[in-house]
Structures are given as structure tokens and as C-alpha cells.
User: Fold PTS system D-sorbitol-specific IIA component (Gut family) from Mangrovibacter plantisponsor.
Amino acid sequence: MQTIYQTTITHIGENACDALLDNMLITFREGAPADIEAFCFIHNHGALNADLVPGCTLELAGHNYPVTAVGSVAGQNLRELGHITLRFDGSEQAEYPGCVHVAGQTPGDIPTGSTIKFIA
Assistant:
């Protein structure tokens, strides 16, 4: 198993947790525009060392989630902007080009300092 991406959440936008109610988590790297930051889990951007693909694992705040689908631009968005939309629905088809779908229960709480890690 190889870590292909790792970062730490440093700030949670005032409306970011609202997306959890819709089984989503939206990330963006530090320095996001203020209107975007309000809806995102902000992190200290890490390097993406390999492609995100179905079958890899997301580790988030101590829980593991199998990746079931990856949108066509999700890897590029993560690499360049630290931005992805995680969907906790287990879909095997990406809903939007920037989505990464995972299987498992949507986390109820993701505190500042939590780690986001993709493992292949």
C-alpha cells in the first residue's frame, strides 16, 4: 500500500458541514476565494503522487472508505487546486467530472486537524 495523497484540514468553512447532510464533503486548498472557502474543508495542500482510481482507499478522520468512482477531472482538480467533492454514496459512476465517490457512512463530524489520505 502506498500513500498517493495526504493533507490535513486546517479550517472548516462556515457552511462546509451543511454538505455532509447531503452525503458530500467539498475540499479546497488554503488560499481559496472567500466565497468558495465558506463551503469547503480547507487543507494544507499535499502532492498527488499517482492517479486517483476506483479501488484505492480514502482514509478520513480515522475511517476507511473504498473509492468506487472517480470523475474525469477529479485528479487534476485535486493536484492543482486541492479541490474535490467526495460523495458518500458508493456510486460506480461519477456524477460530475470533479467527484470522487466512496462507499460507507457519511462522517458526522470532521474536526480541524483531521487527515485526508488516499492509499493505492
